[in-house]
Amino acid sequence: MPRRAAAFALLPILLASAPAAADPVYQNLRLIAPAAPGGGWDQTARAMQQALQSAGIVHTSSVENIPGAAGTIGLARFVTAERGTGDVAMMSGLIMLGAIVTHRSALTLHDVTPIARLVGEYEVIVVPAASPFRSLADFIAAFKANPESISWGGGSAGGTEQILAGLIADAVGVNPKRVNYIAFSGGGELRPSVLGGQVSVGLDGLAGFEPYIEAGTVRALAISSAARLPHLDTPTLREQGVDIELENWRCIVAPPGVSAADRQRLEGAVKTMVESPAWRETLERFRWNDRYQGSEAFAAFLDSEEARVLGILKKLGTGGDSAPTGPYPVLVLAGLAIFAAVAAAGVVRGRRREAQDGAAAAPATPSASRSRPICCSRGCSSCRCPPASWPAGCRAPAWGRCRRWAAGSPVRSRCRTWRGRWPAPRWALRWACSPASGPP
Which of 187, 347, 377, 404 has its CA 20 to 30 A from that of 294? Predict the structure, then answer.
């Protein structure tokens, strides 16, 4: 009993001496993936979300997808709508650099706040299991024989996959402009098209296709690394005579206009995350390369990488300074000109019709109605009942079978009832100018 009392007496002291759990840096951190679900940015954002929460760096974290134009749509919204916001960050990387040049975006990565470079990933080239291309040599031979017949499926236009396709074409002696590249908004759309054979070959990050390679549903022809990876028995491009090495990298940025305190807080949270066991396990699971760089080193790397990507795209003919060539732009401009001419003609016809309808709907004055004939009967081409003839009666032309009725006839009384609502109703004029026997 005395021992139990002593234990209870020591309990408050032990609890006080125990280390307190660190408070999370963020109650909620929003992560924006400027692409559709299933792609590399989406995978990185969701892996980061889990690592941040597992390490206790954030209380909660949410991921928002904004797809379109290889991330430039998400970039525009991020810069304009999130300016100065301290609890939001966006995924970015090499794909966005290429898209900015290709789409000639007014906003660039110089308009955001660089935080850190995170990971790198090699690109893998795959074909469906039933494809006739058993090796990269088979594929290159078919591509050189008829470049336009080979469809390359990959990420958004101007991204890493299109850059890789252009580099391969240039390395094997094919004009990169002849590459039939089909852009998908994310890996979630690309992979079913590759599996279904809608494209000849698929290009994506290794993490996107590795489960399908292991399952045998696709066949890897090559990987863009400098040497073979220990966990993947796939030859490199260099091994097979195509001297290319390319690594896609991803990073995280903050909005423009954030305070120095918010920037330091996000930098510290990211640095703590990349050092956590949860993030190390994530790198191993997705086969990502650890390419972490702090904000200052990453900003310098970003400048050099931008110049490199611009040079590559200019060489491939997809840079911002290159002009479209071939008959396609001419056909597009001609179609636009024809459409504009047809639309203008439609507008003119519509205005004429409106003017005619307005003139017909306007009430006629007596002076105008005297000179306007009203065709009202069969065989009588210009029967009229002019007000000037009142009260002498209605008059019809002397020719034809129309008759002039004497004063006191039913026609006269009818003409009086029409006063004030000229021209007369068609049925009344037809009755007044009957070609055969006149009014009953």
Answer: 187
Over the stretch 57-101, which tens digit does the pLDDT of each residue have? 999 999 999 988 878 899 999 999 999 999 999 999 998 888 888
d(CA 129, CA 344): 54
Listed in sequence order, the residues at least 6 apart from 27 whose beta carbon sits closer than 8 Å to its beta carbon are 58, 59, 60
DSSP string over 195-218: HTTSSSEEEEEHHHHHHHHHHTSE
Predicted confidence (pLDDT) per residue in 239-250, tens digit: 999 999 999 999
What is the rounded CA–CA span in Å between residue 282 and residue 54?
Answer: 11
d(CA 375, CA 384): 8
Indicate the pTM of the whole model. 0.62
Query: Is the distance from CB of 144 to CB of 174 less than 8 angstroms?
Result: yes
Domains and their CATH numbers in the chain: 23-119+249-316 (3.40.190.150), 121-247 (3.40.190.10), 364-440 (no CATH)
Distances (CA, A) of 202 to 68, 96, 150: 20, 20, 11
User: Which residue's structure tokens are 């000037």?
Assistant: 388
Q: What is the pLDDT of residues 161-216, one digit of tens each?
A: 989 999 999 999 999 889 999 988 777 788 899 999 999 999 998 988 989 999 99
Is the four-CA dihedral 44, 45, 49, 55 of positive or negative sign? Answer: positive
Between CA 44 and CA 282 the distance in angstroms is 9
Question: Rounded CA gap, 43 and 89, in Å?
Answer: 15
Estimate to the nearest angstrom the gap between the alpha carbon of 384 and the chain centroid.
66
Question: What pLDDT band is residue 316 in, cutting at 50, 70 and 90?
Answer: confident
Q: At a CB cut-off of 8 Å and minimum separation 6, what does 103 contact?
A: 69, 70, 72, 157, 158
Query: What is the enclosing helix (H) or strand (E) of 180?
Result: strand 180-183
